[in-house]
Write a structure and sequence with these properties.
The complex is a heterodimer of chains A (226) and B (239). Chain A has ten helices and no strands. Chain A is an all-alpha fold and 226 residues long. Chain A has one domain (19-178): MetI-like (MetI-like fold, Orthogonal Bundle), CATH 1.10.3720.10. In chain A, α2 runs parallel beside α5 (92-128) and α5 (92-128) packs antiparallel against α7 (145-161). The termini of chain A are far apart. Chain B is an alpha/beta fold. In chain B, strands 5-6-7-3-8-9 form a six-stranded mixed β-sheet, with helices on both faces. A three-stranded antiparallel β-sheet of chain B has the order 2-1-4. In chain B, α2 crosses α3 and α4 packs parallel to α5 (166-181). Classes of the chains: A mainly alpha (226), B alpha/beta (239).
């Protein structure tokens, strides 16, 4: 059976893998967005000892190797690890944790840069309006919303495309923790290229569609809100 | 904001500067300025470029702290607002910019209030346009409406018409006259002598960061007491 046929026919195995992949990656992106945007905004707007090393660290961690993240999360969640009691290892929960760890620095570092640049532009106006710290953060995040959507999409793309971390902490268990990227790797090694190509096509289409949607929304919003 | 220090009585100045100065590194931008900004006719800061007008306004507003001397102002009790020479428009519609300023000032940001402020500066027709797509003159009027959203008792204007054409300048000046008529104390900087004549009740003349002359506008223009002011009024370059 060809790859296109699998997709068009709505093959149950393929659909289950796609559903799990989306659930894991969207959850991880949501968690990483909340953590990363908060951290990025706080670092952008405050001055404290160690800020510069923190920024360098955040920027450096944008290139974290997924297998290293997978290994660290594996050690944390394994039976003898500090979070072993949660029983998350080899579950979708562990995969969400790994992906969130992987993309939180990306979202935090890019948010910090965007908010800091905008703050340089808005500082005098917002200070003259006597806006408090919470109001400033809210105003800056809102006015940076178009850039932040792009940042979130970058995080989503990175999480959706990675294979090493989820393979290590999820175990690639059929019907339970098998997602698109791990399936593609496995099916390719087995010679089942139809399913691998079908999943690859779905993965690329999803990421392109999401980015296309975000681009369209951004164009519309910029026309209507500036 | 700086210096939440109460000033004494009802006839008090809104802001009092005592020997205030400001230096950036080794460069002194403002030197030893002692001045009361009291309610009344518009106060115009006049002087050539680089004379310290903007720095004085920012210190009086509390946007920057003096590096020497002191500023006394009851920031909690006296509502103040500032219009920058090149105001930054928030990435929202004109109406949303006003609503934001109202909310920041703790005032109700209902449609009626927003529409009233926009109408006041003649921007009712562009309420739903993105603020950054307005013309320079429209943006300056929107920024003025945003400042007025604070219902200020004292309004600081930093060369508000410096980059506007004569027609847009006239519109902004008309709004300033209305605001003054409503009892708002306006403190404005300009290097435009004609504008100073049209608006000022009191002139504060600055040269190289020093307060050179502080006098009623009629006195300043008819009989300036310093050589620097005479040369400035004669159109000479005051360096």
């Amino acid at each position: 059976m060809g790859a296109l046929d699998l997709v068009l026919r709505g093959d149950p195995t393929l659909l289950a893998i796609v559903r799990l992949s989306l659930a894991v990656t969207l959850s991880a992106t949501l968690i990483a967005s909340v953590l990363g945007m908060t951290l990025g905004a706080v670092v952008a707007l405050t001055r404290f000892p160690g800020r510069t090393p923190l920024i360098v660290g955040m920027n450096g961690m944008m290139g974290l190797p997924p297998v290293v993240v997978g290994l660290l999360v594996f050690l944390l969640l394994s039976r003898s690890g500090p979070l072993g009691g949660l029983g998350l290892l080899f579950t979708p929960g562990a995969m969400i944790v790994a992906q969130a760890v992987l993309i939180t620095p990306i979202i935090a570092a890019l948010t910090r840069q965007v908010v800091e640049d905008l703050w340089a532009e808005y500082r005098d106006e917002l200070t003259a309006m006597q806006l408090g710290p919470a109001g400033r953060v809210a105003a800056l995040l809102w006015d940076a919303r178009f850039s932040l959507v792009t940042i979130v999409l970058a995080g989503f793309g990175r999480a959706a495309a990675e294979v090493g971390a989820v393979m290590i902490v999820g175990g690639n268990i059929d019907g339970f923790t098998r997602v698109m990227t791990t399936s593609i790797a496995l099916e390719t090694s087995k010679g089942n290229l139809a399913l691998a190509i079908g999943l690859g096509g779905v993965l690329i289409t999803l990421i392109l569609a999401l980015n296309g949607l975000a681009w369209g929304v951004r164009q519309w919003a910029e026309r209507h809100a500036g | 904001m700086l210096d939440r220090v109460p000033l004494a009585d009802a006839a008090r100045p809104l802001v009092r500067l005592g020997g205030a100065g400001f230096a950036a590194g080794t460069t002194e931008i403002l030197k030893d300025v002692t001045l009361d900004l009291a309610p009344g006719d518009p106060i115009v800061l006049l002087g050539p470029n680089g004379s310290g007008k903007t720095t004085l306004l920012k210190i009086a507003m509390g946007l920057i702290a003096p590096t020497s001397g002191e500023v006394l102002a009851d920031r909690a009790a006296v509502r103040s607002a500032f219009l920058f020479q090149k105001p930054v428009m928030l990435r929202r519609t004109a109406a949303a910019n006003i609503a934001f300023a109202l909310a920041a000032a703790g005032r109700p940001a209902d449609r009626g209030t927003v529409a009233g402020l926009l109408d006041r500066v003649g921007l009712g027709a562009v309420a739903e346009r993105p603020a950054r797509r307005l013309s320079g003159g429209e943006q300056q009027r929107l920024a003025l409406a945003r400042a007025l959203a604070r219902a200020p008792e004292i309004l600081f204007l930093d060369e508000p018409t410096a980059s506007l054409d004569p027609q847009a300048t006239k519109v902004v000046e008309d709004i300033i006259h209305q605001v003054v008529a409503e009892g708002v104390t306006v403190v404005m900087s300009t290097h435009d002598l004609g504008q100073a004549r049209r608006i000022a009740g009191t002139i504060i003349f600055l040269v190289k960061g020093r307060l050179v002359e502080h006098a009623p506008a009629t006195t300043f223009f008819r009989n300036p007491s310093t050589e620097a002011a005479r040369r400035f009024l004669a159109g000479d370059l005051v360096l």
